[in-house]
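Batch manifest, entry 17 of 40.
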Amino acid sequence: MINYDSEEEKAAQESLAEKLKQTREFLADKEKVKEVATVIGEMMEKVMDINARLKRGERITDEEKEFLFEADKEFKQLLQGFKNMQSIIEDNMIKQADAIFFNIKELAEKGDEKAKKLYEEILPKYKDALNEENEGRLN
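Output type: structure tokens
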């Protein structure tokens, strides 16, 4: 059982766990991924066609202008959705790596020779990763 500092933290962690589950389910569903890729491809083809016509100096219809406006909104939403999925997956990977690191550290502190050797090997890399993460937050 996990202990939380507050109900808010518990709710946030449960929400993240649910989002991770949904992300994994979506990415595992090849048909959904293929469907999204197909829709994106069709939209891009139409956008590129309209763009080429504009470059040739042709006028576009109000419907095509509306399509471009809606396509722009949808592309931005999709991009944000993919960025959110990426963040959720990265957050989970960091938590797993931390759990492994601290487990090895604990074993090393208890005298496990293999764990000591591994801990000494991964400690500099772990510190580097923390520095990179902190630098990323500052930028």
